[in-house]
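Hey L., structure's done. Input below.
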Amino acid sequence: MRRLSFLILAVAAALASTACAIPHDPKYTLESGGRSRNFYVHLPKYYSTSNRWPLVFVIHGRTGTGPGMERIAYFDNFADRNGIIAVYPNGISRSWADGRGDSPAERDGVDDVAFFSAMLDRLESTYSVDTSRVYASGLSNGGFMSYRLACELSARIAAVAPVGATFSATLSENCHPSRPVSVLEINGTDDPLVPYDGGQVRHGSSGRILSARDSVQSWARIDACPATPVRDSFHGESSGGFETRHEIYSGCRDNAEVALYSVVGGGHTWPGGRQYLPALIIGKTSRDFDANDIIWKFFQAHPLR
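Output:
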């Protein structure tokens, strides 16, 4: 118990520390559900209204912030290189109402699905957004939230990519998207906070979660995919590299796909991103691939149809 309490405090301190610097991107405020909500927008370097631009929500974890999530994923530079409007929203009490039932936001009655819908209304009226290419990804609580968006905002979110998160049992039993949504999940098999094999989350909100494999199988059923995925793996080139196992369900309804990247020995981390706490606390970060690259390639293949 003492080690768990230390771990929780350390995670909170580390994620909070990522938000200390003043961001250069504009901060927007809007009213949603009777609350003042805010988010940051990073436009690609060569943004102009002569084109329509894809948009990616990059959603922070429990105790995190929008700017802090950018610094974990190094996403601004990636967005510049690939022509993406990156959006970093802030949750209420640094948490999201992701459907598991007991986050601070959920206990406070926050409707975060409505908040994301309101953000899209503002963004689409302010910027030149390609509405067929709006996506969501996030780490931990933010990854769980992306799953909820796939369930409840599927008419506007083309595909999602949760990292360090799985499908919650409650949400999986009550998920009825209006269309097939492609899902890419990335998990470390040694994640000390969100167990790869499912059960109870060990930090922040509780509620039973499915295992990583059961999560993609559950979503594959929602998308009417073939029963058996194609599996392969690749190994890191360095001596300290990881094996990463990949399985994908293709041929789903309306050309949707469901994929899982399992980093063998990886932790509660963003592959290719910042090691925001020592490995003793959150596990190891894989340097064998960049999650941003994998996620973006997947997103590009799955626009809203």
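The first strand starts at residue 27 and ends at 32. The first helix runs from residue 2 to 17.

-- N.
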